[in-house]
Every structure is written in structure tokens, then in C-alpha cells.
Amino acid sequence: DEALKLCDEIIANFPSSDLAPEAYYRKEKLLYGRKKYAEAERVCREAIEKFPASSYAEELHYELGWIYSSQEKYTEALDEFAALEKKSKDARLSSSALCKMGDIYFDRKDYPKAVENYDIVLDKYPDSYWADYAQYQLGNIFLVTERYNQAVIAYQSVLANFPNTSLRPKIIFQLGTAYFRKNDFERAASEFSAFLKDFPSGEMVAQAKMYLANSFYNMSRYAEALA
């Protein structure tokens, strides 16, 4: 509340200063964080209209895309992200916008469009913060479309190309899932055993144990499955 008051004070008292665009940006972030999406959208659009050339302009367009997405205005969100990616020279914003576009298409089961956006990230921004995520999401698309060999390759590529990725637990879990679905139960068991050894706590542990038990069962290793 106090932060919002300060933002409003800056906007009201110093409307033409260099601080005003930042105040709008921070106000929008505060409102978005509280899930007040309609108010956040209003603030964001007002800031873009008043300060189209400010150093915060691209950030505001990026935030507006997220606001639209959070309100399920997916067409508007895609338009905003696409325009930003086309114009921006900021690799962080561009790669993130492409990934968000890919996520929207993924959720709508438009897999070719999702793949197209993730591929652009890997092609144009291979060293960006989002490159490992784009490769991981390609693996997930291959998994849900039952192209298990391609899913395995995609997940292995993330681990090989991004050894320090924060997505490592999810990748190993999904790799095990891909092996399991292609009936390679020995490799599935190996991946889920490695997962449980490296990540012994967390929300995916129970599911990993179930997969591991089923892998042992399908190899007729009943005592291990029962345990």
C-alpha cells in the first residue's frame, strides 16, 4: 500500500520527470502482483501512451502481454509479444516474449506454432536466459504428441548444453517419463532412481516413486516394485 502511494505521489507531482515512467512501471507490477489485472492494464496502457519512447517502454509492452495473458486475452497477448520481439534489441525480453508465445500456443494445443516460437529462441538467442526452457518445452511437446525418441533427445540436449540449468529436476523426471512411455523400463528406472537420489524431497517424489515401482513391475522385479 505504501509503495503504491509513493508511485501515485510521483506520478501526480512529477508527471514530466524521468521518474514518472518508472513509477508507472512499478505501480503496474504491484497491481499485477495482487492480481488486479484490469487496474494493471489501465496503468500500463496509460504509461505507454504518455511515454512511448521512455527506457521503460519495452518493459511496459512486455508487462502488458502478461496482463492480457492473465486475463485470458490470448489474441491481444500474442500480438503484444510478437510486436515486442520484432522491435526489441533486448535479447532477454525478446526470448522471454517468444517463450510466452510458445506457452500460449502449447496450452491451446497448437503445437506447430509453439515449436516455431521455441525454435526461434534456440536459433536467434541460444545464449539467452530462456534457451534451456525453450529446449525443455520442445521435449514436452514431443512427449505429449507421443514422439518419445525425439523427447528423449530434446531432454538430453538440455542436460548436455545447459549443465547448470535450474530445470534439472523437471528434465530428469520427464526423461524418465519418456523412457517409460516408450516401454524402455530399464532406462526409466535408472532415471527415476537418479531423480530420487538427487532430489529426495519435493512435490514430484511420490509420482517418481510410482513410476519407479511400475518400471520394476514391468521388468518382473517384484520385490523392488513392492518396496
Task: Write the element-wise H/E pattern from the N-terminal end onward.
Answer: HHHHHHHHHHHHH
Task: Say how many strands there are.
Answer: 0
The average pLDDT value, as a whole number, equals: 96
Uncertain runs: none
Radius of gyration: 22 Å
Shape summary: elongated
Straight-line distance between termini = 53 Å
Q: Which secondary-structure class do the elements indicate?
A: mainly alpha
Q: Which band does the percent of strand residues land in? A: under 5%
Helical proportion, percent range: over 70%
Biggest β-sheet strands, sense, barrel: none
With helices defined by DSSP (H or I, 4 residues minimum), what is the helix count? 13
Outline of the structure:
With 227 residues, this protein is mainly alpha-helical.
Output the keywords.
227 residues, mainly alpha
Write the layout of secondary structure elements.
Layout (H helix, E strand, L loop, with lengths): L1 H12 L5 H15 L3 H14 L6 H14 L3 H14 L3 H17 L3 H14 L6 H14 L3 H14 L6 H14 L3 H14 L6 H14 L3 H5 L1
Helix pairs in contact: 1-2, 2-3, 2-4, 3-4, 4-5, 4-6, 5-6, 6-7, 6-8, 7-8, 8-9, 8-10, 9-10, 10-11, 11-12
